[in-house]
Design brief:
- There is one protein chain.
- With 277 residues, the chain is an alpha/beta fold.
- The chain has one domain (10-267): LigB-like (Protocatechuate 4,5-dioxygenase, Chain B).
- It has helices at 18-28, 50-61, 106-112, 123-126, 129-132, 135-142, 157-167, 187-202, 217-229; strands spanning 4-5, 42-45, 72-78, 87-89, 94-97, 100-103, 118-120, 146-152, 173-178, 183-185, 232-241, 252-262.
- The strands form 2 sheets. Strands 2, 3, 4, 7, 8, 9, 10, 11 and 12 form a 9-stranded mixed β-sheet that branches. A 3-stranded mixed β-sheet has the order 1-5-6.
- Strand 5 and strand 6 (100-103) form a beta hairpin.
- Helix 7 packs across helix 9 (217-229).
């Protein structure tokens, strides 16, 4: 019998009614994207409730309409509720949302488990929202797609990057890192902090990103190391906070959307930044 992780935050972070959820996601994906943009190989997306961070997530995911052929997704996010050493993959066969089940890619899971600091542990996944809220976007964009979700705990940038090196292969594989930015600063202070963090992300300067700059700093730093090794660029797509969407401006959470893309011909001559230590 299949074992499926049920939705943990449907009705809280996003609608639990399938039709309303589909309509909501499609509205968030209704973003104009230039046909000249390079194809995203990976994305950094936020993970708050859709009313707060959904518009920023939509800006990122809209880029994937121009990327056909995605059949599997490697999804990394922070372990908010149950801490883990290294990275944890679930044992279940699928993750469910109101739109249906997303199957776990067992072949990718077995490859990941070849890395010593990857373990099987369902506890960090059971209530983790940072991974779950990404799934309806993937379901609306790709329909049948397999998934390897990784909850990232105490892992150094090179350790996360090594896992990505094992999993990130052909164009059929999309990499996603789920993270919000600053937490609970006033609007102006958050904007300054997030602009600094965004500059470090675009520069692929993993060492410049502190744990307090992003709740998913650990998977984010690992992605930047892996992207720099591959000679990829990181582009800022959107930067805002809950004070721009549905929250007050006294204590906000920052959201950023970034695309990891091939370098342009003009940029290939410049060296990759030293990302991560």
């Amino acid at each position: 019998m299949s074992r499926v992780r049920p939705p943990a935050v449907a009705g809280l972070f996003y609608p639990d009614d399938p039709q309303r959820l589909a309509t909501t996601v499609e509205s968030l994906l209704a973003v104009d994207v230039s046909a000249d943009e390079p194809v995203a190989q990976a994305l950094v997306v936020p993970h708050a409730g859709y009313v707060y961070s959904g518009p920023t997530a939509g800006v990122a995911y809209a880029r994937l309409r121009a990327r056909p052929g995605v059949s599997r997704v490697v999804l990394l996010g922070p372990a908010h509720r149950v801490w883990t050493d290294g990275l944890a993959v679930p044992s279940v066969d699928g993750f469910a949302t109101p739109l249906g089940m997303v199957p776990i890619d067992d072949a990718l899971r077995r490859r990941a488990l070849g890395v010593p600091w990857v373990t099987v542990d369902d506890a960090p996944h059971a209530r983790e929202h940072s991974l779950e809220v990404q799934l309806p976007f993937l379901q609306r964009l790709f329909g049948a797609v397999s998934l390897l979700p990784l909850a990232v705990g105490d892992a150094r940038p090179h350790e996360v990057a090594e896992v990505l090196d094992v999993l990130w292969d052909g164009p059929e594989t999309l990499v996603l890192v789920s993270t919000d930015l600053s937490h609970y600063l006033d609007y102006a202070s958050a904007r300054m902090r997030d602009e600094r963090t965004a500059a470090a992300i675009v520069a692929a300067d993993a060492a410049a990103i502190e744990d307090d700059d992003a709740c998913g700093a650990r998977p984010l730093r690992g992605l930047l190391v892996a992207a720099a090794r591959r000679g990829l660029d990181v582009r800022l797509l959107d930067l805002r906070s809950s004070g721009d969407t549905a929250g007050d401006r006294d204590r906000v959470v920052g959201y950023g959307a970034f695309a990891v893309t091939p370098r342009s011909a003009a940029d290939r001559a410049r060296p990759s930044p030293a990302a991560g230590r």
